[in-house]
Design a protein that fits this description.
The complex is a heterodimer of chains A (about 200) and B (about 70).
Chain A lengths: L5 H38 L6 E3 L6 E5 L2 E5 L7 E3 L1 H33 L6 H36 L12 H28 L3
Antiparallel strand pairs in A: 1-4, 2-3
Helix pairs in contact in A: 1-2, 2-3, 3-4
Chain B lengths: L2 E3 L1 H8 L3 H8 L3 H8 L8 H11 L3 H4 E3 L5
Antiparallel strand pairs in B: 1-2
The chains are: A mainly alpha (about 200), B mainly alpha (about 70).
């Protein structure tokens, strides 16, 4: 078995802890700004959201790594984007909220690892929550994305559209893997308890 | 638990404090205290070996089986 290098491990944990700490703080700031933007967008008069589509230049739209160019003059008229802006902010808050939850759980796990207590029942629960968050994101996130895209395309009146919903299988698969890892942690926690209760 | 420890009795016979035993066997007082009060789940052979060596006793003097009704 490869020898465990505690010094290297401590450095890795310190770096990860630092990155997670600042990511959580940064995301709190972004979420705060989005909350302010959400409240502000509700109170801004609807008339200020009128958008003249003829102002749009060439737009590059990327769908599945293929870039489509929508030429200038394709869209005409004035649309009101208030509801789209509000929906965009809600979508952002929900998705970043899930990400923030996962980051906080990870930060707490790393914090426990720093205290040399990685295999605790608390960490098993945190990993389990992360797994469920990924599965939840795999179900909820496409709903918000499809809803937002539907509203944008509908507002542009570009072509007839149907709302197509599909689960984010990648995220769900990731969640299932993390749940599997959580059960390994549970076994680790029971071994740790045995170890702690042995003199 | 059916296995009970008699460490306190052996220590009293040897007129030895737990702290002194802790120093001699290189096991923390907290762990020895847990052993004395039966709060542990297992004891290593190495720990038992050291305790028996220091207290000059047999494992049976420290550990005792007591039948319990379930």
């Amino acid at each position: 078995m490869e020898k465990f290098k505690k010094d290297n491990f401590d450095i890795v944990i310190k770096v990860v802890s630092f990155i997670l700490k600042w990511s959580v703080i940064l995301l709190y700031v972004v979420l705060g700004l989005m909350a302010i933007a959400f409240i502000a967008s509700i109170f801004v008069p609807k008339g200020l959201y009128d958008f003249d589509l003829s102002l749009l230049g060439n737009i590059n739209v990327q769908i599945a790594n293929v870039v489509y160019e929508v030429t200038e003059g394709t869209f005409e008229g004035i649309i009101n984007v208030k509801s789209i802006v509000i929906q965009g902010i809600i979508t952002g808050i929900v998705q970043l909220g899930i990400l923030q939850f996962i980051l906080i759980m990870l930060k707490n796990i790393v914090s426990d690892v720093k205290k040399e207590n990685p295999f605790s029942s608390e960490n098993f629960k945190r990993l389990k929550f992360i797994g469920f968050a990924y599965i939840g994101a795999g179900v909820v996130s496409p709903v918000f994305n499809s809803w937002l895209m539907f509203r944008i395309v509908e507002a542009l009146d570009l072509f007839r559209i149907d709302l197509n919903y599909s689960l984010n299988l990648q995220s769900i698969f990731m969640g299932l893997i993390i749940l599997g890892l959580a059960s390994v942690f549970r076994y680790g926690a029971s071994l740790q308890e045995d170890h702690d209760l042995t003199v | 638990m059916a296995i009970i420890t008699r460490l306190d009795r052996v220590l009293a016979d040897r007129k030895m404090q737990l702290s002194e035993l802790s120093e001699k066997v290189d096991v923390s007082i907290a762990n020895l205290s847990n052993l004395k009060t039966g709060k542990v789940r297992a004891i290593r052979f190495s720990t038992l070996d050291k305790i028996c060596e220091v207290l000059n006793c047999q494992p049976g003097d420290i550990l005792e089986y007591e039948e319990t009704t379930e």
